[in-house]
Amino acid sequence: MTARRVLNPVQRVAIFGGTHGNELSGVFLVNHWLKHGEEIARPGIEVRPFITNPGAVEKCVRYVDTDLNRVFDSENLRNENNLNLSYEVKRAQYINSIFGPKGSEDAYDVILDLHNTTSHMGATLILEDSKDDFTIQMFNYIKTSMAPLACSVLLIEHPRLKYATTRSIAKHPIGVEVGPQPQGVLRADVLDKMRRIIKHALDFINYFNDGKEFLPCILEVFKVLDNVAYPRNANGDCTAIIHNNLQDQDWKELKPGDPMFLTLDGRMIAYEGDCIVYPTFINEAAYYEKNQAFTTTQKMTLCAQAIRCTEPK
Amino acid sequence: MTARRVLNPVQRVAIFGGTHGNELSGVFLVNHWLKHGEEIARPGIEVRPFITNPGAVEKCVRYVDTDLNRVFDSENLRNENNLNLSYEVKRAQYINSIFGPKGSEDAYDVILDLHNTTSHMGATLILEDSKDDFTIQMFNYIKTSMAPLACSVLLIEHPRLKYATTRSIAKHPIGVEVGPQPQGVLRADVLDKMRRIIKHALDFINYFNDGKEFLPCILEVFKVLDNVAYPRNANGDCTAIIHNNLQDQDWKELKPGDPMFLTLDGRMIAYEGDCIVYPTFINEAAYYEKNQAFTTTQKMTLCAQAIRCTEPK
Question: Which amino acids does the record list as binding substrate (chains A, B)?
């Protein structure tokens, strides 16, 4: 008999929109659900829609002072120097007081944080912990339910790159990233994909709480390797843009020698790595200021144990 | 023998980038040409690349205080109340002092103003005056040179909608609008189209100055009819988004009864006009704040007389 993890039922779920104020699918859906909650209601579970960065939503910008999705580290969450805190750090502390505290037993069980990207990533789920069997099982369920539509999983576990995301205060933090969609735009096709992901996530939780056992599963994920910077000259000016052959090719293999950038005088700059990688977040608008042209990933397969709830209702 | 217009040679041409600071193709090209002018040089013509809204470019936003591309009316250009002027109105006066004055003999002959849109408009040329034979001839030349790639012409002459564009200070104002491209993003395909339009425009001017006669021509244009607003509830909240069937269908016919919007509860809102129209600027990010979901146009054909230069070099 295989190992089986017996887990507590899920009691509290939050759905975050507007962590980046110009990523409109989540803002629009969360505002809708705040008025019409029946779509996300599931028996015996508190499901709470919440706008995390109302200041940024109001201005339709990514953030007011700093990226809310990078400040949920212990230093910021504990900082009591109230006079000098940025809008987003104050907001992070407030969010942590409601849905956390991060790392504690009181934290929400699940946070689904809704994002858009200008990259052609399609429907994407973001996993923070490769040992989180519950979330891997959920992602497997969502992927299966979304088929034949592709639904990719990005694993952001990394020895050096730390994200300190808004959702990271939950026991099971889940990023939902759907693109391509320009900042400040609502596309019906993107909205529909995001909405279906949330439906399947909540259905999974409902089945789990009801006592359904989820058998051991495997999940193909793309694990973050590194960020690739734009070429710049001595003045710091960007000297090349994403090559046509790479544009819109998120999740497709990039081989050493493949075109990566194009300079304005027509010179191609090739990828010079020593192995095949799978780029993602290619040409994401918000990452120009971080000087990230794209993120490389490697494909790997995670295995999750069977899971079951302790106390079927 | 047909009529022929004999016109003065073109002496001064400006290429504007960054009128909207987050429309990056023009910003990137103009900054490139400021350092490497040989690509846009033509004998006997001053061709001046210029960043019109450096404050907005610096912040990668559409504008700092107000839309620079709507303030070139006589009231703003003459306003001397320096203390209370917005950044963009001050900038408009400065631009007018260099490239204008608007409506005077001293104004630049041609201004090519470079824009991007999140709409699927492809390569688009914007015409302000249906009687401007020189510009119609240029657009005909550009369209022919771009083929088989589509290059649409939008005519913004309208009894009620007035634009007061940045380029309107020139004798021949030319808008260049290429999409789809998200705000804050540079796409190689979009950059290439814009660059080819500028090459063909400058080649046309060069041929014209050299004494080449351009024979009478006809030009298919899409003339602005009206702007269509998003449906809103009593609180002013947007209640529907662009329908999937209309999204990305710029320049395609929209018939009475065709789907136009979709509400979050799945209801379709149909187009209820009384004739076929050709929508454009569908789901443009910058027009949410103007509450414009798209612009309707009608197809028409303009005729231009033959043109020739007075003094062939």
Answer: 62, 69-70, 163-167, 177, 287
